[in-house]
Design brief:
It contains 9 helices and no strands. With 203 residues, the chain is an all-alpha fold. The protein is elongated, with a radius of gyration of 26 Å.
Length: 203
C-alpha cells in the first residue's frame, strides 16, 4: 500500500505561500479601509473657510457644496487671488458685480474695500448665487453656467432654444469654457457633499 506523504520541504513552501497570500489580502483590506476613510478623503480634497461657507449658505439658502466647488474652481481657496480681468478673492468677484450686489442686498458700503476678505467675499458671492437660483428657478446647471458666462448669455441660450438648461445637454452650450466649468463644478460639488456632509447642520 502506497501512502502519499507530503515532504517537509513542500509543506513549508505551501505554508509560506499561504502566509504571503494572507498578508497580501490584509494589505489590500487596509488600503481599502484607508481609501474609504473620511480623514484620507479630507486630506485629498481640503476645504478652507468652512464656517464662513456654511454660515452664508444657510443664510441665503444655497447648497454649501456648490459654494465650495465654485471657490475651488475659481481660486483654489486663495483669498488673495486677482484675475487678469480684475476678479477678486475666493469667489473671483468682479468689482462691478460686487458693487451691484452690495447695493441690492443692503450690505455695508464698506464691503467694497474688503472684497478679498473671506467673510465679505463668500457672503457677497453666495448672495449672488442665491439671486441666480431665483432667476433660473433653482436650476443648478443654469446657475453654474450663469456664474461663469453671465446670466444674460444663459437667459438668451435658453430663450432661443440653444440650450434647455439640463445637465445632459450641456454639450449644446456655445462656450467651451462654460461647458467645462459646469463639469468641473459638478465634480467637486459631488465630492465635497460626500466628504463633508457630516459637518453641515441644515437649518
Amino acid at each position: 500500500m502506497k501512502v502519499n506523504a507530503e515532504k517537509p520541504g513542500n509543506k513549508e513552501r505551501s505554508m509560506k505561500r499561504f502566509t504571503r497570500k494572507r498578508l497580501f489580502f490584509i494589505v489590500l483590506l487596509v488600503i481599502f479601509l484607508l481609501l474609504d476613510s473620511r480623514v484620507i478623503w479630507k486630506a485629498m480634497y481640503p476645504v478652507y473657510f468652512k464656517q464662513q461657507i456654511f454660515s452664508s449658505a444657510s443664510r441665503y439658502h444655497v447648497d454649501p457644496y456648490l459654494v465650495m466647488a465654485i471657490i475651488q474652481i475659481e481660486s483654489k481657496f486663495d483669498q488673495r487671488r486677482v484675475s487678469r480681468k480684475g476678479a477678486v478673492g475666493l469667489m473671483q468677484l468682479m468689482p462691478s458685480t460686487a458693487k451691484w450686489v452690495i447695493k441690492q442686498a443692503n450690505f455695508s458700503s464698506m464691503a467694497e474695500e474688503y472684497l478679498d476678505e473671506p467673510d465679505t467675499n463668500i457672503s457677497i458671492g453666495t448672495w449672488y448665487i442665491s439671486y441666480l437660483y431665483d432667476m433660473f428657478d433653482r436650476n443648478s446647471y443654469a446657475v453654474i453656467a450663469a456664474y461663469n458666462a453671465g446670466p444674460g448669455n444663459v437667459k438668451r441660450w435658453i430663450a432661443q432654444g440653444v440650450w434647455d438648461g439640463r445637465g445632459d445637454t450641456i454639450s449644446n452650450i456655445p462656450f467651451g469654457e462654460t461647458r467645462h466649468y459646469i463639469q468641473r463644478v459638478e465634480y467637486y460639488k459631488e465630492r465635497y457633499s460626500k466628504i463633508y456632509q457630516d459637518e453641515y447642520n441644515k437649518p
